[in-house]
Amino acid sequence: EMPNPWWHLRGLCWVPPRQPSGMSRFCHSGPGKDYALPNSSWSKDMTSQFNKFMEMSKSGLWQRISSHRRLMYDLPGGNLLFSFPKFYPQSDSRFFCRNLDVEGLGFEYVMFWNQSEKRMICIFQPGPYLEGYTGFVHGGCIATIIDNAFIGCALFTANLDINYKAPLPLGSVVLVDTKVDKTEGRKTFISGTVQRADGKMVYAHATLLFIHMDPQTSSQLEEASKL
Amino acid sequence: EMPNPWWHLRGLCWVPPRQPSGMSRFCHSGPGKDYALPNSSWSKDMTSQFNKFMEMSKSGLWQRISSHRRLMYDLPGGNLLFSFPKFYPQSDSRFFCRNLDVEGLGFEYVMFWNQSEKRMICIFQPGPYLEGYTGFVHGGCIATIIDNAFIGCALFTANLDINYKAPLPLGSVVLVDTKVDKTEGRKTFISGTVQRADGKMVYAHATLLFIHMDPQTSSQLEEASKL
């Protein structure tokens, strides 16, 4: 049993977060369910990939990342973003990828972090509410699920460059495999692919540049929010 | 009054579509409401931008693009994508950007096409269900709304390169301004910005490469769907 499913990535290392002080005062509904656990909408392939990574997690090499209705529940208590109490009252906000209540319709996914390889694997099963062209996933969902992998790191996405190789059918199960290529000061360079679990079909390849957020970025966020 | 709000882009020109034959047999629920019209969740800014573009549409320079629960309702009847009857039974599918029923929670947007400038303006008001970091829009939504502008053109996105300049607060009203820079054979090069209506704040800049779909691409889609 996992003692506490809340984890966070700080300096590209997941550690258990603290409960942010004052959180209960502002967040009425609480974190609710952890979406990164199997449900009845998961296909056999999805469940089998999940079980494989859970098995590999026993050694501590991989760590499952929890996922709740708002991103802040999966972020550390001390995160600078908690310093915006004016956002707390927006308790009707939902994390973009967890905004549908019916299981299986939207983003079904679970992420596993490998600290030694600085690599995130996301097992993704796109549901029928993510449609672009008839029967296929909207390109924006693919951008979203790639961008998602490092959103818990207090990193701001500065650039996202995606090459779409083939249209992804709704209901497929794919692995989104992202890893840190290098870090230069506050910049983190990441590359990723979206591919079938057997590696025989690549749907997209992407590179990302993230900027670590610091108190200055925090002020920028604050400024931006006033506009 | 608009005689028929269904339009489509063929060779980068919007023309009224035909009713696809056999459509009523496969699509049980019908197109339903047109989401690209004002509702009570639209802010004053959003409505005022909408009215401005509707006013400019009177001369025929701009055309409002309708938007329904599935993209196929806004595509031409003769579109090659209708040649996949096996996808029709997925009548529970929803277009990614129109998958929430409660107004104001998700993607509130309307697109206007300017044929002479080959330019699409999207007025976008992101709701609280599009959250990434607390109070701000998920980067994937920005990618989605940019990619969206030309999704009706029977164009397959080959590359999407986004530079995020500043985090976009939930509830903002922004203009997504995309235009065709050049066309080379089956390739269409597009650039776009996401900015405040007054132009004083730019949130993202993007370039896109689209490939026109032809019967060969159609077979690729067919192949992909079998995998």
From TrEMBL, chains A, B:
Pfam families: 4HBT. It is found in: Cell projection, Ruffle membrane; Cytoplasm; Mitochondrion inner membrane; Mitochondrion intermembrane space. InterPro entries: HotDog_dom_sf (IPR029069), THEM4/THEM5_acyl-CoA_thioest (IPR052365), Thioestr_dom (IPR006683). GO terms for biological process: apoptotic process; fatty acid metabolic process. It catalyses: (5Z,8Z,11Z,14Z)-eicosatetraenoyl-CoA + H2O = (5Z,8Z,11Z,14Z)-eicosatetraenoate + CoA + H(+); (9Z)-octadecenoyl-CoA + H2O = (9Z)-octadecenoate + CoA + H(+); tetradecanoyl-CoA + H2O = tetradecanoate + CoA + H(+); decanoyl-CoA + H2O = decanoate + CoA + H(+). It is an enzyme of class 3 (hydrolase). It comes from the Eukaryota. Its EC number is 3.1.2.2. GO terms for cellular component: mitochondrial inner membrane; mitochondrial intermembrane space; ruffle membrane. Gene3D superfamilies: Hotdog Thioesterase. Residues 135-200 form the Thioesterase domain. Keywords: Apoptosis, Cell membrane, Cell projection, Cytoplasm, Fatty acid metabolism, Hydrolase, Lipid metabolism, Membrane, Mitochondrion, Mitochondrion inner membrane, Transit peptide. The keyword Membrane applies. It is a peripheral membrane protein. GO terms for molecular function: hydrolase activity. Its main location: membrane. PANTHER family: ACYL-COENZYME A THIOESTERASE THEM4 (PTHR12418). Belongs to the THEM4/THEM5 thioesterase family. This is Acyl-coenzyme A thioesterase THEM4.
